[in-house]
Amino acid sequence: MSEPDRLYFRQLLSGRDFAANDVIAQQMRNFAYLIGDRETGDCVVVDPAYAANDLLDILENDGLHLSGVLVSHHHPDHVGGSMMGFELKGLAELLERVSVPVHVNTHEADWVSRVTGIPLSDLTSHEHGDKVAVGAVDIELLHTPGHTPGSQCFLLDGRLVAGDTLFLEGCGRTDFPGGDVDEMFRSLQALAALPGDPTVFPGHWYSQEPSASLSDVRKTNYVYRASNLDQWRMVMGG
Ligand SMILES: [Fe+2]
């Protein structure tokens, strides 16, 4: 989009900016994101977990309204559900308050439905390269399997919202159900090749800084020391 002031973009830390008193949210250090168009008031939330109502309150206090949800992947710390014996709130709680499309990768839809209890028919499935328009803001959905089969990243206006595919230091684990070491290598390489040096906004705060340029991440993140699949498998302990 051309007018920079129209873009509304907020990075919110769980246990601090939302779900402030939730001990699990504090420990997990998830980031949720709000992406909107200030002029039309449309806004999407990326990965609403723990306290979806807090996230809705924040964007509504800023004068926007929710028009959709983007899901990076199905893990309960991103969408709610049962994790380590705890019931985390998330998508289901959000949809009780407002009915909006939930955008998932087609390879993640079954998993998201199972974890959240939301019927498959209430999820909007996408292919790699699809775009979701939020007012005048176009968000490109990138399929980046590896952490999970249908993990996806979001590219908009010089920003890469990377979910649990790429952190500033390291990447998402590949040893959970549906994880795949080789797919992760290919996904990370594809992200590294993105043009325009976008700023990387990860799904967790596992580093000093909360965001960094992709060129910096390529220089400093050990996941980019492996230049081929054999090296990568060794890095990942395969
Ligand atoms: Fe995850």
From TrEMBL:
<dbReference type="InterPro" id="IPR036866">
    <property type="entry name" value="RibonucZ/Hydroxyglut_hydro"/>
</dbReference>
<protein>
    <submittedName>
        <fullName>MBL fold metallo-hydrolase</fullName>
    </submittedName>
</protein>
<feature type="domain" description="Metallo-beta-lactamase">
    <location>
        <begin position="29"/>
        <end position="204"/>
    </location>
</feature>
<dbReference type="Pfam" id="PF00753">
    <property type="entry name" value="Lactamase_B"/>
</dbReference>
<dbReference type="InterPro" id="IPR051453">
    <property type="entry name" value="MBL_Glyoxalase_II"/>
</dbReference>
<keyword id="KW-0479">Metal-binding</keyword>
<keyword id="KW-0378">Hydrolase</keyword>
<keyword id="KW-0862">Zinc</keyword>
<dbReference type="InterPro" id="IPR001279">
    <property type="entry name" value="Metallo-B-lactamas"/>
</dbReference>
